[in-house]
Amino acid sequence: MTECPVCALEIEFAEDTIEGELIECDDCGTELEVISVDPDAVEEAPETDEDWGQ
């Protein structure tokens, strides 16, 4: 278990969760990136800009 860095809700990973996976906090809706599965850790997912092929 880890906690959301925004609202501190405790988050439990599914057994098949992998590093780099994006998940959403059930409480505040923040998109989180799994940065470690042993120990469990997440951080806010980086904002991505649209790439229009330029």
Describe the secondary structure blueprint for this structure:
Blueprint: E1 2-3, E2 10-11, E3 22-24, E4 31-37, E5 40-44
Antiparallel strand pairs: 1-2, 3-4, 4-5
Characterise this structure:
By secondary structure, the chain is an all-beta fold. The protein has one domain: Single Sheet (Rubrerythrin, domain 2). 0% of the residues lie in helices and 35% in strands. The chain is built from no helices and 5 strands. It has strands at residues 2-3, 10-11, 22-24, 31-37, 40-44. The chain has a 3-stranded antiparallel sheet, with no helix packed on it. Strands 1-2 form a two-stranded antiparallel ribbon. It starts with a strand and ends in a 10-residue tail after the last strand.
What keywords describe this structure?
mainly beta; Rubrerythrin, domain 2; two-stranded antiparallel ribbon
CATH topology, anyone?
Rubrerythrin, domain 2
Shape assignment: globular
Question: Please, what is the average pLDDT?
Answer: 92
Which band does the percent of strand residues land in? 35-45%
- First-to-last CA distance: 41 Å
Total helices: the number is 0
CATH architecture: Single Sheet
In short:
The protein has strands spanning about 1-5, 10, 20-25, 30-35, 40-45. The chain is an all-beta fold and about 55 residues long.
